[in-house]
């Protein structure tokens, strides 16, 4: 264990994982830890810093922490290189980037942590995203308490955690079967079709290997933090707590929910306030498939067809690069006419701000975990069109368990008729009222968890105490 200095508070070293859906809750976690009196050194990869700065013109990621410092929080912000120049096209060289992340980046982290530790006698501990496969090795080398942060639901964590058990029982890889699994601790029953995409195929890519390795590494973490709420996943969390100290501390939202995206977003945000404010309450469907997934051109075509047939207003985030297309349009004939009045297409937005707008009546979503939590928080029911990774499993929570969303095509090919039908059901009528009633209940659970005596707030304080006890 590293030497401790009783006169100083615990000091978290946080190196963010470079995907948008991980950056947002990780920044929120840093701010929350600092608000509880800890010191924080927060590092982004330098290409992420560059992208955020470029996207926000005068607002850089540094500003968000500078603001926090000026209000008395102890946060230092810095960057770390992943070994490639900032301009290197990581998406186009995905495997090269991943390989380097696995084998070379840990040396950079080692150097970074070693320099930090030798520069002051703070009471450092390591707080890394669960996907950071280097964390256990670095924590061990420097004798640091090792905290792992999981950005997805406990259900998904538990399935990855029990990968060996699922393999022994022949349920992973799934290979197209649909069978009920009832032996994972804390999960009474789950269909194999609802497993994450990385469990579905036998063809293991480098990305699968990284994720599976991450779940070997997490077993040696001293503490695990999860962006979920105890009351939503009681049995799973209790079962995980039998294995390791596991704290549900979500939803990790910023203090001002409506201003979340600035300086956490990798892309510039279009402002759609004026357009939304011109629409009547509950009349607009928000459509977005998150920060990561690619979508087939045919799928875009069918969704656009459904929006064209449907009668509702819509605001659709079509992220640059979300669809590969060579030539020709991606929308059906007549679609562009509706976008003059009834629809708005934008490359990126401040999602929380959009979801909060009273004009929004529904969300057609890929079921990314942040989007699910944000939609519940704003009381907006969902149409679920999961694409890959945990999104497949998150759909089960939204539709089957909480009953606050509708399935779209359930793994079959999407059609414009079904898109139109589901939009109609979501936006008005008896089923829509039921969904709204149920989402109000789940929202209340989130709200309660964040009150002073709520479960997430108490768990956070408990973590703060436990990690302090472990350090001193
Ligand atoms: C993926 C996983 O599916 C998710 O479950 C995991 O936790 C992170 O990685 P991603 O595609 O990034 O998800 O989706 P999501 O988790 O929903 O995160 C996207 C974030 O970007 C949300 O916080 C959302 O508010 C934000 N966003 C999205 C914007 O600010 N503007 C947009 O236009 C779209």
Automatic annotation (TrEMBL):
EC number of the protein: 2.4.1.-
One Pfam short name: UDPGT
Signal peptide: none
InterPro entries: UDP_glucos_trans, UDP_glycos_trans_CS
Keywords: Glycosyltransferase, Transferase
PROSITE patterns assigned to the protein according to its UniProt record, in alphabetical order: UDPGT
Keyword field contains Transmembrane helix: no
Gene3D superfamilies to which the protein is assigned, alphabetical: Glycogen Phosphorylase B
Family of this protein: Belongs to the UDP-glycosyltransferase family.
PANTHER family: GLUCOSYL/GLUCURONOSYL TRANSFERASES (PTHR11926), UDP-GLYCOSYLTRANSFERASE 85A1-RELATED (PTHR11926:SF774)
Protein name per Swiss-Prot or TrEMBL: Glycosyltransferase
């Amino acid at each position: 264990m590293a030497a401790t200095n009783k006169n100083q508070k615990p000091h978290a070293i946080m190196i963010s994982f470079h995907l948008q859906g991980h950056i947002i809750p990780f920044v929120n976690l840093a701010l929350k830890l600092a608000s509880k009196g800890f010191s924080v050194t927060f590092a982004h990869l330098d290409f992420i810093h560059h992208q955020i700065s470029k996207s926000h013109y005068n607002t850089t990621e540094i500003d968000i922490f500078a603001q926090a410092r000026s209000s008395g929080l102890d946060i230092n912000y810095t960057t770390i290189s992943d070994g490639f120049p900032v301009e290197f096209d990581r998406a186009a060289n995905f495997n090269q980037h991943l390989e380097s992340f696995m084998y070379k980046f840990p040396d950079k982290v080692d150097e970074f942590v070693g320099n930090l530790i030798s520069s002051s006698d703070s009471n450092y501990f390591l707080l890394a995203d669960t996907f950071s496969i280097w964390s256990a090795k670095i924590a061990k080398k420097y004798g640091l308490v090792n905290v792992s942060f999981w950005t997805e639901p406990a259900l998904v964590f538990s399935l990855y955690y029990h990968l060996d058990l699922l393999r022994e029982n022949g349920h992973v890889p799934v290979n197209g079967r649909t069978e009920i699994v009832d032996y994972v601790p804390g999960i009474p029953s789950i269909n194999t079709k609802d497993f994450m995409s990385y469990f579905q195929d036998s063809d293991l890519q480098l990305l699968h290997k990284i994720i599976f390795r991450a779940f070997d590494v997490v077993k040696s973490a001293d503490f695990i933090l999860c962006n979920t709420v105890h009351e939503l996943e009681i049995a799973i969390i209790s079962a995980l707590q039998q294995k390791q100290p596991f704290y549900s501390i979500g939803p990790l939202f910023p203090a001002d929910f409506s201003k979340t995206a600035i300086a956490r977003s990798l892309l510039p945000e279009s402002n759609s306030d004026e357009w939304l404010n011109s629409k009547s309450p509950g009349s607009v469907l928000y459509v977005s498939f998150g920060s990561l997934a690619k979508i087939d051109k045919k799928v875009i075509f069918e969704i656009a067809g459904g929006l064209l047939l449907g009668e509702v207003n819509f605001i659709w985030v079509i992220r640059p690069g979300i669809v590969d297309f060579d030539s020709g349009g991606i929308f059906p004939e007549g679609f562009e006419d509706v976008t003059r009045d009834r629809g708005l297409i934008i490359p990126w937005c401040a999602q929380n701000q959009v979801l909060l707008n009273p004009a929004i009546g529904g969300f057609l979503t890929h079921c990314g975990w942040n989007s699910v939590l944000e939609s519940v928080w704003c009381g907006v029911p969902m149409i679920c069109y999961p694409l890959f990774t945990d999104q497949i499993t998150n759909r089960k929570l939204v539709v089957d368990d909480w009953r606050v969303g509708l399935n779209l095509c359930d793994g079959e090919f999407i059609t414009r008729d079904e898109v139109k039908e589901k939009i109609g059901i979501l936006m008005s009528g008896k089923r829509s009222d039921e969904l709204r009633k149920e989402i109000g209940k789940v929202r209340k659970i989130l709200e309660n968890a964040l009150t002073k005596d709520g479960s997430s707030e108490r768990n956070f304080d408990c973590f703060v105490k436990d990690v302090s006890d472990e350090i001193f």
